[in-house]
Amino acid sequence: MECKNCELRQRQYYCTICLKNHLHDIRLQTNHLSSDRDKHVARAFRAFKSIESTHLQIRAEIAQANRSLEQLVIEGLAKVRRDCESKRNRLHTLRETLVQRRRILNAARLLPPQSQTLTKESQELSVLSQTIARARAGLVQELVEVFHVVEVGGRPAVGGRPGARGEWTIGGLILPVPEDVRRYPPDHINAVITHTIHFLGLLTFYLGIKLPFEVSWSCGRFGVGMPWIGAGRGSESWAKWTTKHPMHLTSKPPSTSSSTPSSPSSPPCTPASLADSEIPEQAPAHAQNQSFTTGFAMLLYDVCYLAHTQGVEIPLSQTGDALGNLWAVCCSGELGRRSHSTTPLLLPPTPPSFTLDFAQVLQATAASPARAARIRPGRSVQEAGIGRMKGERIVEEDGWDVVELDGEEGFG
């Protein structure tokens, strides 16, 4: 037969035993190869299984990383979008502001120079201030003429001899200095102080000046009743003197009755405030005289502050000459130029430039030697003399008292 490999024709014969042996060998080789195959397959399976688990873990990590990346991309993109939106809005606002500023700038370029405008307004304000000052000066001059504030007596310096100062009068009445108050009867002092208070009130009204100490009246209306004086609002040392003090005297002797008189059921005047209604009905003569002295010192302090606002500085030694100081105010070259109501505005009373202390004025007013004068009711000015001082003791005035209106318990 023809061989399929060598294509030669040959014939080979095998016995049964040879064929059995040959088949047995083949089976043995087949079994051996099968076992080797199974081992290699198992080994390969195990290797593939380990590689597959690692691959799955890597794939899971890759998927997790992709998800995290996508989340970061989404959040970052959203943040970037928000930032872009806010910057876009800010840019839009800046553009609108720029357009508005350009319009304002173009409108400002059409206006005249600012310096010229300010100069013109300053000139108009200066002219208005001068006009107001002249009007105030005219009113003050008429006020001086109406109240007839003049200096009487005195003599000029002649031939090297020093002159003598006269006495200032208002409405024909002499306003004495603090050391001469006790030489005049109470009615005279009450009248001249009332005139002075009216004059000072109108003067400060015309000039627009607020005084440290304010005057009130016992019946609550201006000029009705008896005047009282006390500190207004402020932060200086004088502001603590809030108690009202009388600006009047009387020759009525104090009551010696031990019983307290009952108040009338319907008084003619009602107190304007609770603070004003706390005035005692009866007080010792010494305390009342001291209260009047304190009130008089407050009035002098007001005059000195008014002079300071009008450019007139009053030394402590001249504070007692109230009418003379008011005359100096009325003749001041700075009269009416500054006030608390018009420009240029003054600082509230009292500014640091006003160095006069009320305690000094009060001490100078209360330490006058004429406090020892003994003036009895009914005696004339010519008959009145100066009492003697006994050591440090001050002899009080017999029969002097503060006026108390019957049926009045307060003031307004």
List the strand order in the largest sheet.
1-2-3
Given the structure, what is the number of helices?
6
Indicate the proportion of strand residues: 5-15%
Shape: rod-shaped
For the largest beta-sheet, the strand count, sense and barrel status come to:
3 strands, antiparallel
Q: What distance separates the N and C termini? A: 161 Å
The number of E-state strands comes to 6
Order of helices and strands: HHEEEHEEEHHH
> Which secondary-structure class do the elements indicate?
mainly alpha
Oligomer: single chain
Rg estimate, integer Å: 56 Å
Task: Report helical residue fraction.
Answer: 40-55%
Poorly predicted regions:
253-283, 369-412
Mean pLDDT: 75
Textual characterization of the structure:
There is one protein chain. By secondary structure, the chain is mainly alpha-helical. The chain is built from six helices and six strands, in the order H-H-E-E-E-H-E-E-E-H-H-H. It has helices spanning 16-110, 114-147, 186-207, 285-309, 322-330, 358-366; strands at residues 150-152, 167-170, 173-174, 213-217, 227-231, 245-246. The strands form two sheets. It has a three-stranded antiparallel sheet with strand order 1-2-3, covered by helices on one side. Strands 4-5-6 form a three-stranded antiparallel sheet, with helices on one face. A hairpin with a 2-residue loop joins strand 2 (167-170) and strand 3 (173-174). The relative contact order is 0.11. The model is unreliable at 253-283 and 369-412 (pLDDT under 50).
